[in-house]
Amino acid sequence: MKEVSKFVLVLLLSLCIAFLIHLTLLHFNDSPLFEHKIIAAYVVNFILALVIYLILFYSKEKYSAQLGFIYMGGSFIKFIAFFLIFYPYYKSDGEMEMIEFAAFFTPYAICLIIETLGVIKILNK
Predict the structure, then answer these.
(1) What's the CA gap between 125 and 102, in Å, rounded?
(2) Which of 13, 39, 64, 70 is 20–30 Å from 32 (CA)?
């Protein structure tokens, strides 16, 4: 349980710091702070990363040989979430702007890195 708590703490702190930096950059560029579903992007990515990690963590004993496939399935679920929740909104005006892409991709990349490091620790045990 200690590993799960540590993972949640690292994930949450990393996303909070990234969110503050993201908002700061938006502010200095005179861009709207809370548009482009930025809060939803951070929350959805946090929840998905946490759920995928928990599934992997609690499956490590029974399905150790399949953990890689479960991890890849989790990545597929993230893509589905993007295309169902965010993509229609971002493409509603006919194009996806860089600021819209960054609103989703920034928390996605952070979660992916932390999730991958967590999975490596699970696999090494």
Answers:
(1) 35
(2) 13
Q: Is the pLDDT of residue 124 over 90?
A: no
Tokens representing residue 76 in the block: 């597929």
| pLDDT exceeds 80 at position 59 | yes
In the chain, helix, strand, coil percent, each to 5?
A: 80, 0, 20
Domain that holds residue 117: 2-124
Rounded to whole angstroms, how far apart are CA atoms 114 and 84? Answer: 24
- Which pairs count as long-range contacts for 105-109, CB under 8 Å and 24+ apart, including other chains? 106/18, 106/22, 106/41, 107/15, 107/18, 107/19, 107/41, 107/42, 107/45, 107/46, 108/41, 108/45, 108/78, 108/82
